[in-house]
Design brief:
single chain; 778 residues; alpha/beta; Phosphorylase Kinase, domain 1; Transferase(Phosphotransferase), domain 1
């Protein structure tokens, strides 16, 4: 139903039940509805109703037992007078925008069984004990369900011993900004079936009294600041189906008795500080569906006993220190959908038995020491959508059948000596010699064995040294230090907005400070965006393998199923864009010229100094970062491309920034080094003029490039760079320098790629301009 609720409904003298929930009704709620003295149930939930509730709500409703107005667009202060409807058993106001204090008068509703205020803007008045509604709500003798989650309560969780409700079964208090310790009194609430305290600021240890809650089926303490060990008393909760302790600072070992909780279906202790082995008893949870122990410091091998988890759907042991081989017995987990063993120290080969995991959709084995070939049996995993084998020491041909037809190069970044299709950015596999050729080759090989063996003995020691050096070069030089998701959360104060440095196409960059005092920049990828996984893998590969003083330096990567981040050097002066358009900065000619020489030097290395030419594809001022000495560092390689022996490549989707991308890239998707040269020319113009290529003055046929090309230099340069001819004795030198820079910019950004100069020529010319400028100023 649509439209508004008729005012006349309130005139029905004998109406007891009004139920119009789950429709498309809008407008205000007629006040006459709240004057129906005969009404026992009013249900208006899940509509588009707006406005506020009347301040005298409850005064004219002596028989009202149930009130539902949740999931609307209501706002206003919570009506204190609602407590006058003294027969209320159910009060449901969730999913609106009510604000102000939760009134203590609610505690007078002695018959109340369900109170649902979740998803509003309500808080608790803690100015005096008499005003605090929180403790007395938990004292209501008939209250079964209490929903206050997703409200900024900004309080502590204080309970009063000996006066707690024995009837409360469900407590939802997640995302309420509650601090302090979890009180020991909680163990007296003997009827509790579910306790959700997640995403708060609780500190201290987990009370051992929770072990007395024998009816508990769901315990959610995740994403707080809890310390200490996981108490063994939790193992007394025989009915527990879900236990979430992730995102805290719990330490010590994983209690072996958790394996006795036969009813457990979900167990998450991710992002803590556990440092033990995985107890073998854990494999006794034969009915568990979700098991997440990621981002800890768990050690030891992964047991063959994992095969006992017959029902498991999600298995995440990533970002630990597990060693040994991957047990082939995993093949028995026929219901497994997601498996991540990334960021460990596992070695040996990928078990061929993985091909029997017919339900698998995600497989992440990246950042281990795995060797051998990729089993061809994985072609049978027809549901596999995500595969990451990056940063291992694999070899041989990448399978081509089944799901491998859809995987890209990001699945195999720095994975050793793999070969396969060119699109995977690996070497092309050599064809196998035929049997007729082998007839002639094999005897020659056999006859040479004696000679080879003799030589081998002589050079064995040298050979070992060479192989060791080769192995070192093959290993990714990426992880200068291991970092976990928890470390990044702590370093950024839970990715607080005040630490946000900026946002990009695939995520956000935060400033972080590690416990040893080192400042870093943390780029967190928004995995909801298409291409974010690919961008993360590209950036890790590029920054792991390239080294230049004018390229951003990578410290580490953090990769989990639902979280991916790159940790970079923190550069205190921000981006070139910030410096060009901030009132706090005023770059002179020499500074701007030096910055662009640094950028040209970085691009010259990527284009001509690295073994495989790299095209950045998205050069712009926001991707040029400045250190404390104002030296420039090119960053953000999320859409960079390796040319792999080719001069160009074509892609169907262009992701570069409007105004900076070369015409042939924007219109035809052609990727070449000269596309970067074009972007460099535009950035060079912007640096000198102080005008963005997207400035509102550039409309129709007029562009930044045309403006510069068709105007005298003195009319387009940034006014901060030149005074008047009479006032500035270096006016002529500056004018000549700026004119020369503009000529380079225009030579870089011609429409025809063939007519553009390359980065070697641009760098050489800019260096000459700088030398002449300095010489003339002396």
């Amino acid at each position: 139903m649509t439209g508004t609720i008729p005012h006349e409904i309130g005139d029905l003298p004998n109406l007891e039940i009004l139920a119009v929930h789950v429709n498309n009704l809008n407008g205000f709620i007629p006040t006459t509805i709240f004057n129906m003295s005969t009404a026992s149930l009013i249900s208006l939930g899940v509509n588009q109703l707006s406005g506020s509730l009347p301040p005298d709500l409850g005064l004219q409703l002596p028989n009202l037992q149930e009130l539902y107005v949740g999931s609307n667009l209501l706002t206003g202060v919570f009506p204190k007078s609602i407590s006058n409807a003294s027969n209320l058993t159910t009060l449901e106001l969730a999913g609106n925008s009510f604000f102000g204090y939760i009134p203590r008068t609610l505690c007078g509703l002695q018959d109340l069984q369900l109170l649902n205020l979740e998803g509003n803007k309500l808080t608790i008045d803690t100015s005096t004990p008499e005003a605090n509604a929180f403790p007395c709500l938990t004292n209501l003798r008939n209250l079964n369900e209490l929903y206050l989650d997703f409200n900024p309560l900004n309080t502590t969780f204080a309970l009063y011993r000996g006066n707690l409700s024995a009837s409360l079964q469900y407590i939802y208090l997640s995302n309420c900004n509650i601090s302090g310790n979890i009180p020991n009194d909680i163990g007296n609430m003997s009827s509790l079936v579910l306790l959700d305290l997640g995403y708060n600021q609780f500190s201290g240890s987990i009370p051992i009294t929770i072990g007395r809650l024998q009816n508990l089926q769901g315990l959610y303490l995740n994403d707080n600041k809890l310390l200490g060990h996981i108490p063994h008393q939790l193992c007394h909760l025989e009915n527990l189906a879900e236990l979430l302790l992730g995102g805290n600072q719990l330490s010590g070992s994983l209690p072996s008795c958790l394996g006795n909780l036969a009813a457990l279906r979900s167990l998450s202790i991710k992002s803590n500080l556990l440092n033990s082995t995985i107890p073998s008893t854990l494999w006794g949870l034969k009915d568990i569906l979700h098991l997440d122990l990621s981002s800890n410091s768990l050690v030891g091998p992964l047991s063959e006993g994992v095969q006992k988890l017959k029902a498991v759907i999600d298995l995440d042991f990533s970002d630990n220190s597990l060693s040994g081989i991957i047990p082939s017995s995993i093949e028995g987990l026929q219901n497994l959908v997601n498996l991540s063993l990334a960021d460990n120290m596992l070695e040996g080969s990928i078990p061929g038995s993985f091909g029997k995991l017919v339900s698998l959709e995600l497989l992440d084995l990246s950042r281990n020491n795995l060797s051998g070939v990729i089993p061809k049996s994985l072609e049978a995993l027809l549901h596999l959508k995500y595969l990451n084998l990056s940063f291992n020491r694999l070899q041989g041909e990448i399978p081509t059948g089944g799901p491998f037809r859809n995987f890209s190069a990001q699945s195999f970044v720095s994975s050793g000596e793999l070969c396969g299709a060119p699109r995977l950015l690996v070497t092309t596999c050599k064809s196998k010699p035929s049997r007729s050729i082998l007839k002639y080759i094999i005897p020659g090989i056999l006859s040479a064995i004696f000679i080879v063996t003799s030589i081998w003995i002589v050079i064995l020691r040298r050979r070992k040294i060479v192989e060791a050096a080769k192995e070192t070069t093959l290993l990714p030089q990426l992880l200068y230090r291991r970092v976990s998701h928890l470390e990044l959360v702590r370093a950024t104060n839970a990715f607080k907005e005040s630490n946000l440095l900026g946002r990009g196409g695939f995520g956000s960059v935060y400033k972080g400070t590690f416990s040893d005092g080192i400042d870093v920049a943390i780029k967190v990828f928004n995995l909801q965006l298409e291409g974010a996984f690919k961008s993360f893998d590209i950036e890790c590969e590029m920054l792991a393998n390239i080294r230049h003083r004018n390229l951003i330096k990578i410290i580490s990567c953090c990769s989990q199923i639902d979280f991916k981040a790159v940790v970079l050097n923190y550069l205190p002066n921000g981006s070139l864009e910030k410096c060009l358009y901030s009132a706090n900065f005023c770059l002179n000619i020499l500074q701007r010229l030096s910055i662009m020489i640094d950028v040209a030097s970085a691009l010259e290395y990527l284009h001509h100094g690295y073994e495989t030419p790299i095209v950045h594809c998205d050069l712009k001022p926001s991707n040029i970062l400045l250190d404390e000495d104002m030296s420039a560092h090119v960053a953000d390689f999320g859409i960079a491309k390796l040319l792999c022996g080719r001069d160009s490549m074509t892609q169907t989707i262009t992701q570069a920034t409007i105004g900076y991308m070369a015409p042939e890239y924007g219109m035809e998707g052609i990727v070449t080094r000269r596309g970067d040269v074009y972007s460099f020319g535009i950035v060079l113009m912007e640096t000198v003029t102080g005008k963005k290529p997207t400035d509102e003055m550039f409309i129709g046929e007029m562009s930044l490039k045309q403006w510069v090309a068709n105007s005298p230099v003195l009319d387009v340069v940034d006014a901060d760079l030149l005074g008047t001819k009479a006032e500035d004795r270096d006016f002529e030198n500056k004018s000549e320098c700026l004119s020369s820079i503009m000529r380079v910019a225009l030579a870089c950004s011609t429409e025809s790629p063939e007519q553009r100069i390359n980065m070697q020529e641009a760098l050489t010319t800019l260096n000459k301009i700088k030398i002449k400028f300095l010489k003339d100023e002396m």
